[in-house]
TrEMBL record:
The keyword Signal applies. It holds the Pfam family Transglut_core. InterPro entries: CAP/Cytokinesis_protein (IPR052557), Papain-like_cys_pep_sf (IPR038765), Transglutaminase-like (IPR002931). Residues 244-300 form the Transglutaminase-like domain. It comes from the Bacteria. Residues 1-25 form the signal peptide. This is Transglutaminase-like domain-containing protein.
Length: 461
């Protein structure tokens, strides 16, 4: 079947083979089939690479030099909005020992104290974290840093590096900032300005699904995929909430951090997920809607022209069609977590909840189910089309029931008798009152057979 079939309206009976029209039905129009390019933001370019953090054992007798430290403001909370912000604690809740929890709590305060001058390596020292009378193995240090980062997307300045030492009694951990404290304050103000505006624009009275979609759509309208960023060493900003919000350019981690950061301020919990897609490192979100968890991949929903929803609140089973979830920390050996000779450290997740529900899936919410072409089934689609047209929305989603063959249904809707979709348009237009109408001459469709969805783009005249 060609990608686009043109059928001209005829008053007289024309040759069906030449005109591709329904004989005397007067229902045919023009259909243009577009490729299914969900995952386009990163789908056609190499994914930006972020290796696991580098950990180094430091000499306890070495002097780090004399540095003056500044305390960062750390005011990350937008000041406006109708919804109550929540604290993110998934990472902390997974920590099992008192030294792990103590290190985490010290991070929550000490990451805001940063040296004014860089060291010889160009990093800015964060105030050393002392763990008196405690000891953590390197894999535990990595666990706590991941837990902290997972709960604090607003802390965007941490370098992908840490050092540690143990003198037999006490442990000292050294964290690093990529930028100076003055720059951190400036960038934080820029993030807050964007977040203030976005959170203040979330309408009052939305349920959790509606809030999530509002944040998702507004972020994707603002942010584009940083196609020129190959790795975090080249450019760290697209990996952060700063890149996504302040600069409007991010890779998958930046999208993930921004989604998590914004959802927090409308009362929705989210967790970053480490994994791979197309055999390259990738990150996306788990989102908790009405006490159920779902996968949300905002990066793969983004595109140059459209916002897609194929990865909006999907199950573990669906996400694993083209994503691979990294192993759980507690299932890995220390050499896997920390790396060893000839073996790189692995990225991991921290005890992710299962995602098995479908109630908050985008297509469950937004698509109308097509069971056939009888009067009852047609009425359901026509009602959805009328609702779409009254709001002048461009997107209409039809989910083909498992009771009918997907391709046969698409043919019957658009390409051969009964050309049912154009009947829907005629009936809907008759109810619109004549001020405007749905065009039959430029109907664009995207077939998504795996999801049994037909996405239709409407135009109005």
């Amino acid at each position: 079947m060609p990608a686009a079939l043109k059928r001209s309206l005829c008053a007289l009976c024309c040759c069906a083979l030449l005109c591709l029209c329904t004989a005397c039905s007067g229902l045919e129009g023009t259909v243009k089939e577009e490729p299914n390019t969900a995952s386009p933001a990163a789908g056609n370019i190499p994914a930006a690479d972020k290796p696991a953090a580098s950990g180094i054992e430091i000499d306890p007798s070495a002097q780090s030099g004399d540095y003056d430290y500044n305390t960062i403001n750390g005011d990350d909370a937008p000041q406006q909005g109708y919804y109550t912000p929540i604290s993110l604690t998934h990472g902390f809740d997974a920590l099992q020992t008192q030294p792990q929890q103590y290190f985490y709590k010290r991070l929550t305060s000490d990451v805001y104290t940063v040296a004014q001058q860089p060291n010889e390596g160009g990093n800015y020292l964060i105030e050393k974290i002392h763990l008196p009378g405690m000891y953590l193995k390197e894999e535990e240090i990595r666990l706590v840093i991941e837990a902290f980062s997972s709960d604090h997307p607003e802390v965007f300045w941490l370098d992908n590096l840490f050092g540690y030492t143990f003198d037999g009694t006490d442990m000292v951990i050294q964290m690093y900032s990529i930028i100076s404290p003055e720059t951190i304050d400036i960038y934080t103000d820029e993030i807050n300005a964007v977040a203030d505006s976005m959170i203040a624009s979330v309408p009052k009275g939305l349920d959790e699904y509606e809030r999530e979609r509002f944040i998702h759509d507004n972020l994707l309208a603002r942010c584009t995929y940083a196609t020129d960023t190959k790795n975090i060493q080249q450019n760290w900003k697209p990996f952060t909430v700063y890149g996504a919000l302040a600069e409007g350019s991010a890779v998958c981690e930046g999208y993930t951090k921004a989604i998590q950061y914004l959802l927090r301020f409308v009362g929705i919990e989210s967790i970053p997920v480490n994994g791979t897609a197309k055999e390259q490192w990738h990150q996306w979100n788990l989102v908790k809607i009405d006490d159920c968890w779902y996968h949300l991949d905002a990066t793969w929903n983004d595109s140059t022209d459209y916002i897609f929803y194929d990865y909006f609140n999907i199950t573990d089973t669906i996400i694993q069609y083209d994503h691979r979830i990294a192993s759980d920390f507690f299932a890995l050996d220390p050499d896997d977590i920390c790396g060893s000779v000839g073996k790189e450290a692995q990225l991991f997740n921290i005890t992710l909840p299962s995602c098995t529900e479908t109630a908050a899936n985008f297509y469950i919410h937004e698509a109308v189910i097509l069971y056939g072409f009888d009067e009852k089934a047609s009425a359901a689609v026509e009602n959805k089309m009328l609702q779409t047209a009254l709001e002048k929305k461009q997107e209409l989603y039809i989910q083909i029931s498992n009771s009918i063959a997907y391709n046969e249904a698409v043919e019957g809707l658009f390409y051969q008798a009964p050309y049912q979709f154009f009947t829907y348009i005629d009936h809907t237009n008759s109810l619109l009152g004549g001020e405007y109408a749905i065009s039959k001459e430029n109907v664009r469709i995207i077939k998504k057979e795996r999801l049994r969805i037909v996405e239709i783009r409407l135009e109005y005249i």
